[in-house]
Amino acid sequence: MFRFAQVFRQLIRSVSLLSVITISSVQAADKIDLIIDTDPGADDVVALLMALASPEQLNVRAITTVAGNVRLDKTSRNARLAREWAGREDVPVYAGAPKPLVRSPIYAENIHGKEGLTGVPIHEPAKGLESINAVNYLIDTLRAAKPGSVTIAMLGPQTNLALALTQAPDITRGIKEVVVMGGAHFNGGNITPVAEFNIYADPHAADVVLKSGVKLTYVPLDVTHKILTSEARMKQIAALGNTAGKLVGGILNEYVKGDMEHYGLPGGPVHDASVIAYLLNPELFTGRDVNMVVDTREGPTFGQTIVDWYNTLNQPKNVFWIEGGDAQGFFDLLTSRLGRLK
Ligand code: RIB
Ligand code: CA
């Protein structure tokens, strides 16, 4: 009898050990190795806070900055600010391209303010930038990475990645997928009648990334304009009562005014945070594989993303295009992750 009890106890121990290894390996397997390329930017800062508050799902290896909403010195300062607000100064910030590949630079100070961030006090963050340029960081990191292991969240113009791909085409090997906030199809653009800002600010870069053959998911205005703030959702964030909730409340209250006025909407989108929500919980979104091309010709359709939604031309499907999203599910996720911060 005693022998049986001994064997039974040993069996229980081995089963529980096996289950622990299984769970931890599944969790470890699910963790996303992530580089966030960004032009903070109000909604970029919200996206950074959300990502940096989710270390069990996102291993944010670095933040790389680019000129876009505002000039590079400001986007880089704001990325360091978001990192400090999230208590994640372990994540390095690399500054990248100060201007687009070909076109003349444009900015969105009318929306994001001269400092690239409104509604909150700005200060010089304690921790500085890394010394090497973001483009060199991308090349070195993606060359050294295991094949198909690194995900890139692209929250601004795609200049940094386009420069890296041009200098080192072999880096596609290290990329798992690139999730882009950008583009517009069904309801037109936000910087021209047909173009969305991130693409319009550097369409040649978007074209280089598209033609590189990396796995691409686009989170366009088609879906971000369905995920809008509201009084109740802003109250949900304010009810957190922590610093992060107060910062995001202040930032979004200012940021959404432009879109609400322009579109006559009752709330505004949090474009870039939708990319992070997709990485954290893709079930919140719907889309389909499509053929997409970017118009790089100067003129009225400059920067337009042309999406063959009904596969009319039967061309290769090169992008997963998201057009649906669970708005309340997004704000519940955003609020819960902000609630983890101080
Ligand atoms: O069109 C919206 C996009 O342009 C967002 O990424 C916003 O931050 C700006 O960069
Ligand atoms: Ca952005």
Describe the protein.
By secondary structure, the chain is α/β, with parallel strands linked by helices. The chain has one domain: Ribonucleoside hydrolase-like (Inosine-uridine Nucleoside N-ribohydrolase, Chain A). The chain has 13 helices and ten strands. It has helices spanning 2-30, 42-52, 72-85, 109-112, 134-144, 159-167, 197-200, 203-211, 221-224, 231-238, 243-263, 271-280, 327-338; strands at 32-38, 58-65, 93-95, 150-154, 175-181, 216-219, 285-290, 292-294, 305-307, 319-325. The strands form two sheets. It has an eight-stranded mixed beta sheet, sandwiched between helices. Helix 3 links the parallel strand 2 and strand 3. Helix 2 packs parallel to helix 3 (72-85). The longest helix has 29 residues, at 2-30. The chain is globular, with a radius of gyration of 21 Å. Residues 18-27 have low confidence and may be disordered. Alpha-D-ribofuranose binds at residues 39, 41, 43-44, 68-69, 108, 155-156, 181, 190, 196-198, 271-272. Residues 34-332 form the Inosine/uridine-preferring nucleoside hydrolase domain. Keywords: Glycosidase, Hydrolase, Signal.
